[in-house]
Amino acid sequence: MRQPKEHFVVTFATTTGAMAMEEACRAQNIPGRLIPVPRSITAGCGMCWAAPPDARQAVEQLVIEKKLDVSGLFTVLI
Question: What pLDDT does 9 receive?
Fold first, then answer.
């Protein structure tokens, strides 16, 4: 069985918000990917951006700079 790893997760109210995050992160070469929201978190669109914990600062900076529409920022084991 796979051991859970810590991830930095960004949730969104809409799928459009999730897709905007993916596009912005890829343009800035910030690691991560869209995944279904973990069961321990609830989010409107059911998708979230999962990134390694060491990318947290870059992701948070990007959210502020690009004024991305996010509903939550979490650190979770998945």
Answer: 97
